[in-house]
Design brief:
This protein has about 170 residues and is of the alpha+beta class. It contains 6 helices and 8 strands; from the N terminus they run H-E-H-E-E-H-E-E-H-H-E-E-H-E.
Length: about 170
């Protein structure tokens, strides 16, 4: 049920929430590759898609010697395929097809359950976390979706408000 505030927002301007997802200490490669001791840094995720078989494909940019990432990716059972376009030990683009950790899968399915979507690219916070912008029609819809983010992902809300129009002010914090 929509509140009066949501009704006032409706039709006026899209809403968005910027939040960070903290780095988990789980054993999945998605966490181990970017923990505090890692030689790789995730810069941004340009796109990702949850497939019907509940695996994920993504395209992102990593920093570090990606030749050293290949053995980690090749011997991990959750990585179903990958391609790397590196730039001489300084990083590059990575395409990956993988089985995500359960809490990440639940997070990525939020757009299937709520009238929201993620604004790409998703940026790295520099400490292994991710800064996400989620867009929806009303604050209420965004708050409902946020309430459904698995607790293991450690959400910190930075901003909630109007989503700026293209060419307007920068949304990213």
């Amino acid at each position: 049920m929509r509140s009066k505030r949501d009704e006032q927002d409706n039709g006026q301007r899209m809403r968005a929430v910027t939040f960070t997802l903290g780095q988990s200490n789980g054993s999945h490669i998605a966490y181990r590759m970017f923990d505090a001791d890692s030689e790789f840094e995730r810069e941004r995720i340009y796109h990702l898609n949850v497939l019907e078989d509940e695996t994920v494909v993504l395209l992102g940019r990593l920093r570090g010697d990606l030749e050293r990432a290949k053995p980690l990716l090749e011997k991990n059972e959750d990585v179903l395929g990958y391609s790397i376009s590196s730039q001489e030990n300084s990083g590059g683009l990575v395409y990956a097809h993988a089985r995500p950790p359960p809490e990440v899968k639940r997070f990525l399915e939020l757009p299937r359950s709520y009238e929201v979507f993620f604004d790409f690219p998703i940026e790295s916070t520099g400490d292994g976390g991710l800064r996400v912008v989620m867009v929806g029609e009303t604050n209420g819809v965004l708050q409902e979706a946020l309430a459904d983010v698995p607790a293991e992902l450690d959400v910190t809300v930075e901003r909630i408000g109007a989503y700026p129009e293209a060419g307007g002010m920068s949304w990213r914090c």
